[in-house]
Structure formats: C-alpha cells, structure tokens
Specification:
Distance between the termini: 47 Å
Low-confidence stretches: 1-35, 320-327, 431-471
Helix content: 10-25%
Structural class: alpha+beta
Largest sheet: 12 strands, mixed
Number of helices: 10
Number of domains: 4
Radius of gyration: 31 Å
Shape: elongated
C-alpha cells in the first residue's frame, strides 16, 4: 500500500516491518531525495502487540554523518513509549540484518549511544564515526528492533517521525532529514452485549448488565459510551457495580438522550468484565434490538481515539407486560385540541381495571415518540393541558394508562397536532379504527375547550419557565470559558445539560460536534429527519441524525472510509477544526473564501511545534491561525496545537465564537 505520508518523497523509501507480514517496498515519488527509512504494511489492531523493525540506511548524496550528529525517531501516543516497549538498537555497516558487522547501541549520552526524552517518546542516537568507521553509501544502517509490548493504544493513525541534526555544521546537511510514516490502526472488537433483568418487563424495575472486553487497561477519564434503543427509558441511569479488575471504577455513569457514558475513575485492567446499571426501564415492547455505537475511548494518554467498538451489541428482548397481570384498557374518546393555553387532551376514563393514571408521551417535530413519560395525570380527571408548546410547533402524542405498580396498557396510536392558539382544530382518535382524524366544527371545539373555572392540576401542568428550558450552567463559575459559553448559549449555538451543567472540560463527541455546526448555520431551527440513514451507524430515529445528514448534504462532513460516522466517538482537535473551517467556508463571502484559498496554497505555518508542513491538517491549522481562530498552547517545544487530543466542549465553543462572531 502507498501511505499518504509518502506523497512528495523520492529516493529510497522506507518500510516498517511487522512480524509475520511480508516486506513491501514502496514506489518512489517526487521532491527531495531521502535516505532509506524503511516502513510498510502499516496496519495494526488496538491491544495486539507486534514486532516492529525500523531501519535507516544512509544515502551520501543527501546526508553524510560526523561524530555527535543525531538521528531522532519520534513516536506519537498511538504506541507505548520507548521506555514501555522492549527493543534494541544497533549500528550495521553492511545493511543486512544477519548478526554480522553489527554493533549494539546502548543507553548513555556519548557518541554511539542513545537517550530518551520528551516523556520517553523521542529516541535520539548519536553518530560515532570514530568507532563505527566511515559512512558507506547504501550500507551504513541504524536498526531498531522492537520485540514486545508494542500494542497500538487507539484506533486511527499512529505516526513515526525520522529526523536528524548536525553537531557542528561541517557535514552534509543531516538536518534536512525529516520523514513521516504511519500505522493505520483498527479498533478491537468490544464483543459487547446487554442483559436486562426484571426491567425487561414494561413497568418493572431491575438492573441492566453490560458485558464487554477491554483490549487494554483504562486510566482515569477514559470512557465507555454506547447508545440504547429508543424503546428503553434511560433517564435515571445510575452505576451499581462492575467486575473489571484494577483499582478504578465506573462509578460515574451518566445519560444524555439515549447515550450512556461510563467514565473510569482510575486504573481499570484489560479483559472481559461487566458494568451493572440501575434506572433503565422498558418503555415499549420490542422483539429484536441492539445497542449501537459502543466505543471505548482512550482519553488519558492524549490520543482520544477508540480502543474498542461494537455497533451491533445484542440486547435481551423487552416484554410487553408482566406475567399474570391484567392488560389494562386504554382511555376512550381521546381528543387533542388547540387552545390559548396550549394543547388540551381529553378522554373518557376506562373502567373495570385498577389503572389509576394516564401517561402522556410526547415528541416534537419529526422526532419519534420514544416511550419516555412526559407527564402523568390522574385518569379520573379526564383532561390534561400541555402548556409547554409554541405556535407553529408540530407535537406528537401517545397515551397509555398505568397503575401504582407501574403496569401499563397498550399504547394509543400516535396523534400529531400543529399548535395554533387561534385554531379550532381537534384531532380525534377513533376507538374503532384507532386512526386520527381532524374535526373543525364549533360543537366539537366547545366540548374540549378549557373553562376558566377548571384549571389543570399541578401534577398535570409542567413548569414552562425559561429556567426550566435553559439550564443555569452551574459549573462555569471560575472557568476561563464562562463568558464565551454564556454568549454562545444566548445565541442558541450551544446548550447545557439537563442537570444544569455544561461540563466545559468534558469531551465533545462527533454527534455533538455536528449539532454545534448545524446550529451555527441554522440557529435553533430543528433539522429535518432524513428519510434514509446518512451513514451506516446513524439511524434515522436517533436524535442526531438530522444534524449529521445536513452536514453531509452540504459536503461538510464526509464520514469514514467504511461509510460510518462514529457519532459517539470523541472528536480530536484537528478533526473538529477541519469540520469547523469547512462550515466557515460554506458560509463565507467571496472575499473570505479567497483569503482561505490563498492561505491554503501558501506556506504552512511554523507556529506550532507539533504540526509538520506535510500532515493532512496543516492547511486547516494554517488558515485558522492566520485568521485568528486559534492560538495554541505552551508546551515543552514552544507552542503546540495538540491535534490528536480530544477537543473539550469549552475549546470547541471558543473556536466557534472566534470563527462566527455576532
């Protein structure tokens, strides 16, 4: 295979030898000549250790070497550090790895020795012509043999960088030696499954057990993220226990929509284990279902990529009703009417069973009604007014009856009404056909219209204050992003969580990124639910499908080569910046587009120590820096961008506020 980092290079190219795989020499391309740094068959799987051989062979037409000149090999966080892997280094005067004419290179600071630095991710070897002998073209070779503990740490691209420096400037330019190559790493199979207990029965509580396999140990802040099907209510999810070895725990498990995130509080050992959760209940029956978009995210080491994934984890069936209990009769004469107070729902209470309340299930727009209880009112009242609606909104309702034990009736047909405080329209659910029809007679309107003498009970009427709709974001006090976030909330671009927090230092996932960028373009206007899934792992009934589908339509988001989007995976700083700049370009004036094009065509920025000119994100970083959208951060090497680190919610908000000012 031809690696993307090889484009623009010529001469003797390199190969990275992975045990049991065949050596493949890559073809030459154009640009400056380069000594042979061998790298090929660049694939791997998270958690699977591999033997790696790295070779550098001198081409004297490009570089000659003197005592004290250094050869530097950097690895990124996708592999363990040099100190964690088992390896040896040697000088070979005849290029052939045959235990002849080979001198071992040992640790130390002198010529003919190596040293580790940059958190043990940089290997520096000092040349020793005095001991090794004169440099010979196509023969003098530095070889590193990694024999154990070289397991990739997360999915994506793991980079290896070869460079050189000159001790006294007297020899032929080894400092021109700069070369990237990469290993494309696949996530391991998490082999996930979910088993329901008593909560498989609608209305019954019980524990949910997630079983999965971790290919590597987790550290604090690493996460397991997965999406439960829409017939499950996960709003009260809480951690109960786990069986993984190690000192850490997943005591921090939370929900957002149907997505559940469990965060490691410390070291969690690799292997198969379980996480037991409470608070998950079945909202409606389903005979076949799966969890989706499960991803084990490696956050702590700075990579932020997936360690393991599973997009089809099995889940036990949910049953319609509890054995030996009555199947309750739903209410009759069900009607939905507009009024100046909101949507008025009326019914004739069922009789002959022990159901006591009516549950109102609700969604807005094209979103499906997912079975989560919106309101509960005493069945005998015969009426409920939904005041948390606005003119022009399309609201969908499903009704069921329930008892004190949580047993439910069958569900009514979904009824949809467009809110209009001046309308007399009534949606009637016919008992015989269970189909909705609209009646517009004055007689029907009078039958269901609320009177001033009869107010809905407190239990039936949800609060509709602004404080309920817009969280107070209690965790921003003292945070550097407070003013930026509050401004972007006011503009309708970012939103808080249901618990009143923003979690500014929490990671942004790819679905949330799509929602942010959509709202930059369209504000709070809800996206259209796509008729066809935009990617293989984005179902049309998931909350984020409309956001992602629109960005795909605008050619802002392209997804992955395997036709997935990985909505629950963390998005790193380089990936988010690329999407954000594509959104900026789509929305830009002709003058702004010309400025972007000119910067991309020019020299790449040298502002950031960790952004080489030939990496895929260099043009994006260059444009963003030159236009004042990013600044970078201090690091040991000067100023860094940290492209592979997962972007936080605060960092993403800051970038968007700079790109899209009021």
């Amino acid at each position: 295979m031809k690696n993307k980092f090889l484009q623009g290079l010529s001469g003797k190219v390199s190969t990275l030898l992975i045990a049991a795989l065949t050596l493949t020499l890559l073809p030459a391309t154009t640009a400056f000549a380069l000594s042979a740094f061998q790298a090929s068959v660049a694939t791997g799987t998270v958690g699977t250790s591999q033997a790696i051989e790295i070779e550098y062979t001198v081409d004297t037409a490009v570089q000659t070497w003197a005592d004290g000149d250094t050869l530097v090999i950097d690895i990124d966080s996708g592999l363990p550090t040099w100190a964690a892997m088992t390896w040896t280094a040697e000088y070979d005067s005849d290029v052939t790895n045959n235990a002849t004419n080979e001198t071992q290179i040992v640790a130390g600071g002198g010529n003919g020795q190596y040293a580790l630095s940059n958190g043990n991710t940089r290997l520096t070897i000092k040349w020793d012509v005095t001991t090794w002998g004169a440099v010979v073209d196509d023969a003098s070779t530095i070889r590193i043999l990694i024999t154990a503990n070289a397991a990739p740490q997360y999915a994506g691209t793991t980079n290896i960088l070869l460079s050189g420096t000159t001790a006294d400037g007297g020899d032929t330019n080894p400092s021109s030696l700069t070369y990237f190559d990469s290993i494309v790493v696949s996530a391991a199979d998490a082999a996930a499954s979910v088993e329901l207990g008593a909560n498989a029965v609608i209305g019954s509580s019980g524990n949910t057990v997630l079983t999965l396999t971790l290919p590597l140990a987790l550290a604090a802040t690493d996460t397991i993220v997965f999406t439960m099907p829409n017939n499950m209510n996960v709003a009260d999810t809480a951690f109960v226990s786990e069986t993984f070895a190690g000192a850490g725990t997943f005591a921090s498990c939370s929900d957002a929509g149907q997505v559940i995130t469990c965060t490691a509080g410390g070291a969690v050992s690799a292997g198969t284990g379980t996480i037991t959760l409470s608070g998950i209940t079945a909202a409606s029956a389903a005979s076949s279902q799966t969890i989706t978009s499960l991803a084990v995210n490696n956050v702590a080491i700075g990579g932020g990529g997936d360690m393991a994934v599973d997009d089809s984890g099995s889940i036990t069936d949910t049953l319609g009703y509890e054995t030996n209990n009555d199947v309750y009769t739903n209410v009759t004469n069900l009607k939905f009417a507009n009024s100046d107070e909101g949507v008025v729902i009326t019914w004739t209470p069922s009789s002959g069973d022990s159901s006591t309340h009516v549950d109102v299930l609700r969604s807005k727009g094209d979103a499906p009604v997912n079975g989560v209880q919106y309101a509960r009112v005493e069945k005998s009242l015969g009426k409920y007014t939904d005041t948390n609606v606005k003119d022009g909104e399309k609201v969908n309702y499903i009704i069921r009856t329930t008892d004190a034990k949580g047993n439910y009736s069958s569900l009514s047909e979904q009824s949809t009404i467009t809110v209009d405080s001046d309308s007399t329209a009534v949606v009637v659910v016919e008992e015989e056909s269970e189909e909705a029809a609209e009646e517009t007679t004055e007689e029907t309107t009078e039958e269901v219209a609320p009177t001033t003498e009869e107010e809905p009970s407190e239990e039936a009427t949800p609060e509709t204050t602004e404080e309920m709709e817009v969280p107070a974001l209690s965790d921003l006090e003292g945070h550097w992003s407070k003013d930026v976030v509050l401004n972007m909330v006011e503009r309708g671009i970012v939103q808080g969580n249901d618990d009143g927090t923003f979690r500014p230092d929490g990671q942004l996932n790819r679905a949330e990124a799509a929602a942010l960028l959509y709202r930059v373009l369209y504000g709070e206007t809800a996206p259209t639910v796509p008729a066809v899934a935009p990617f293989s792992d984005v179902a049309v009934d998931q909350w984020f499908s409309g956001f992602i589908a629109k960005l795909k339509e605008l050619e802002i988001a392209a997804g992955n080569p395997d036709l997935t989007y990985r909505p629950s995976a963390s998005i790193n700083r380089a990936e988010f910046l690329k999407l954000a700049l594509a959104t900026y370009y789509y929305n830009a004036t002709a003058e702004q587009k010309s400025a972007v094009d000119a910067l991309k065509a020019g020299a790449m920025t040298q502002k950031f120590a960790d952004v080489a000119a030939d990496v895929w994100y260099a043009p994006t970083v260059t444009v963003s820096y030159e236009l004042g959208f990013i600044e970078g951060m201090a690091c040991e090497a000067g100023t860094c961008f940290n492209p592979s680190s997962p972007i936080t919610r605060a960092e993403a908000t800051k970038i968007l506020s700079e790109m899209f000012p009021e």
